[in-house]
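Researcher: We're teaching a course module on how sequence relates to structure. For the next exercise, students receive a sequence and then see the predicted structure as tokens, so they can try to spot secondary structure elements on their own. Here is the exercise chain.
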Amino acid sequence: MTQINDKLRIPKNIRKVKNIVGVFSAKGGVGKSVISLQIATALKEKGLRVGLVDTDIYGPSQSVMLNSSPVELKNLKDDQIIKPLVKDNIKFMSMGLISGEKMPLIARGPKVSGAIMQLLFKTDWGELDYLIIDTPPGTGDAQLTLLQRIPVTTSLVVTTPQNVSISDCRRGIEMINKLNQPISGLIENMSWFQPDDQQKKYYLFGKDGAKELAREYSLELLAQLPLVELSDESKIQDHPLLKSEFVKISDKLMESIKILKKKKSIGIPQANIIK
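Model: And here is the predicted structure for the students to work with:
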């Protein structure tokens, strides 16, 4: 498998992005998109400049969660730069803003990879402290494109405690490791359900699957997030327990990146810029 090219040619529009964080899950439906948004929100609330890009071309969901209206961007020229939407002080771009909620994208692997590159490299991100990439599920062309052609600072991997999800997550970790990319930790979602009026926890999808997986790969388990009763996912940051958990995740992420940069001088290269 081809490893990361140390001489990545970095377009000027992401030259001022200090850190790029990929949020991965090899299995769909584990809550990766919700978690990506909440991490971006937690970082933003620290006073940092944050961007969020939804690279799930087939099933973009961030535009729905951010209650964003589709933006028509037809007949873009090669040199045309897209202005990202700004929602709650987060710069944001998604295929959902281009295609709309009802329009499916029917495309093969190479076109999907090209669309991902356009979302990232044709968006005017400006100066950012963190760009969070909400990746599509799986271990295929899209993920390889992101890991091989984007200067990702580090990755986070999301799973549920369910055996099937853990099995797929293991494949995702192996993919990232084979590409010599750092992983700052695992996040276990849907760890348990606890009704607001009860003390008992219900482990609907098994217990501590990610804890065992983290031990297997010597990774940090950043959080075990419960299922909570909410009427609107976009307001998940208002739940006191989850809000505090995402603050902790963002703190651990920032510390991990600090350590990585100290060890390996990881960052977006300032040479090899595409003009």
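Model: If you want an answer key for the exercise: The first strand starts at residue 10 and ends at 11. The longest helix spans residues 240-264.
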